[in-house]
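Worked example

This section walks through a single chain of length 676. The input is the sequence exactly as stored; nothing has been trimmed or padded.
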Amino acid sequence: MEEAQGEVVATEQSKMKSSKQRRNVIAFTGGAAVLVLAANLAIYAFSSHRKRKSDKKGLQGSSVRINLSASEILKLADRIVAKSKQVHDAVASVPLDKVTYENSISLMADLEAEQFALIQSCLFPKFVSDSEDVRKASVEAERRIDAHVLACSKREDLYRVVKAFSVKGDWTNPEAKQYIKCLSLEKDAGRKYKIYMRSNHIVAVLELCKVGQTRKRVAVAYGKRCGQVEQRHKYARLLGYLNFAEFALDLRMAKTSAKVFDFLEDISGSLTHLATRELSILKDIKKNEDGDLPFGIEDLLYYIKRSEAKHFDLDFKALKQFFPVDLVLSGIFKVIQDLFGLRFEEIGNVEVWHPDVSVFSAFDLTSGELLGHLYLDLYTREGKYGHTCVLALQNSALSQDGTRQVTYKSVTLTLKICIRSLSDYSDSVVCLEVCFCLQIAMALLISRLQKGKEGNPCLLRFSEVVSLFHEFGHVVQNICNRASYTRFSGMRVDPDFVEIPALLMENWCYESSILKLISGFHQDITMPIKDETCKSLKRWRYSFSSLKLKQEILYCLFDQIVHSADNVDIVELYKHLHLKVMLGLPMLEGTNPASCFPRSAIGYEAACYSRIWSEVFAADIFASKFRGNLLNHQVGIQFRNQVLAPGGAKEPIELLTEFLGREPSVQAFIDSQSQH
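Given that input, the structure is written out below as tokens.
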């Protein structure tokens, strides 16, 4: 018994000694031990969570949540809303004479950076999930978050705080000034506030404006916005604009309707000679086949197809055999690495939402710095979104000193975020991921390719090859954006600019050396497509391009005019423009001009020009900087740093002028049309 008691005493003494030693260690190392303890707790929680979920590893710097259930999506959405309300309440409570950048603007900017990836975690499942319940929950989460954003945007107490800081003019840097500008109403030349036809502006005016006449004018304008096309500009005038086109262009790169008209007329006039020659060729083909029957607009596409079949030795079905998807992807990664200094590395054993999804990390080729991650979800399946696109899942964001805060010395700060996030979001994964980085860009590329059958590779149509190059332009844009504010990062840039990097990338897949890099017969990939095929593809790209572009310009001019004038007879206008732009070809009698618009123009009222605008700028960049040296690394890095890195924080025309060394020109685009 005494021996047993002795053992107990010895054991207790040993425990006390061990405990004392542990206390001594903590006392000796001080705050560092607390830091280690907190980190260990976070790592333990993270490990435990992952063990419960799966053996898959997470991505460094990712706050994106994968494979959330329907109930988890809705709970996360509610926590996002609650946290956002907490921050906005805190900002709104700041006394107006005590407002500083740190206690107002910084808090809201940090909230955007912290919550962007979490919001996207709720929203992207509606595009890719196999579960109908999850897709429905994603849609409902979007509704809840949008409702909260609307409520915040019309809070008078928040506005007064932002306004108080704006009046002080205590900008920390030009980007901060641009960010604050996004939070306050702008004024016109007469010092009147501009009200945009957005629900958050309209509801705020209707609920809070004390001037009854103003409420009526805004309500009428908003209520009539979806009325007849020719009336839209009339109600834009209620908001202080000359017409609807001026309203629609105010926040775009083009700025004014007059500039758009000049742009379109310049291109149309420059193409007239080439288009006339192309039309003559088509008329000769019809005359040989149908005699003296007149050539109509309904004949255009048919005889273009007939001419292409005769003059181009291109069998696109056979060409597909030379574009296995893995070879095309490896070629795209090589081009991006050589041009922009981004090295993509596939990451295995990562949690994804479907076995077809692959994950890549992007590193700076020189420094090895991790810049972003990419999810590739390429193959079609039931319930998946039916178009090809890129979604930003998490935007890059920098601290005020320009660093990404992924170094060890930033752990003390980020642990505070970690602990706060643990209570706010009640989830260990968010805890650890927020701790390590809110700054790493993450993109999701969705496509609808058909998987190969019976062990055969997926083979791409050439149009799908071009589409992949295009979408990777958006991926590069997302990863290379180094704006300090989430609001300006990723692809959140001027809508007239957002397509320029993607359209620029398309140029490479028409060049012989690149075509040989990305092609190889699927049964023997050492056999790329032939030189003559490469040349034919490049000539085919511009086949009858002037006539095709003239038709697009017709739609754009019609779109600008009907949104710039009162009581336009749209049928007579379309007849006039058709004869003028389409070289005397009349419009089809009895047709509605609105029905002639391509699907891509729907939803872009007064902004149909934007696609051509982007093509012109992309052509200028390619011809001026890359055509002579397709993989010029120095110029590619210059484009990455000068054009892509600032994101939406600077005016795009300034970025392009700095990069080109002059203002952008339409001449390179015009010259490219004559290459066939």
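What to look for: The chain has a mean pLDDT of 81.
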